Amino acid sequence: MGILYLAALLVSLTGMVVLDRRFRLFFFDAPRRAAIVLVTGVLFFVVWDLCGIGLGIFFRGETAFMTGLQVAPELPVEELFFLTLLCYLTMNVFRGAQLLLERRRAA
């Protein structure tokens, strides 16, 4: 049961990849630019989390659904996958909205 949250994040990330590939939204449209944007976004939020942890604002909650592995004090490994999902989802939604608006304007 300790990997349930991580498994859910991996399934969700897989869904993002499938949508990206099907509609050529992010990595399947411009892989180099997508990698730069995704890494930048994840790093930004990791720094944000570390600052929050350092200030005592953020802390790791105890639950049976998480692995218990930590990247840093109060920073569980699942957080890295969550931040990756968050950034990937945001870029897929952003690019998908752009494509829909372009299609609407063309019609």
From TrEMBL:
It is found in: Membrane. Signal peptide: none annotated. The chain crosses the membrane at residues 6-23, 35-60. InterPro entries: Lycopene_cyclase_dom (IPR017825). Pathway: Carotenoid biosynthesis. Keywords: Carotenoid biosynthesis, Isomerase, Membrane, Transmembrane, Transmembrane helix. It is a multi-pass membrane protein. This is Lycopene cyclase domain-containing protein. It comes from Herbiconiux gentiana.
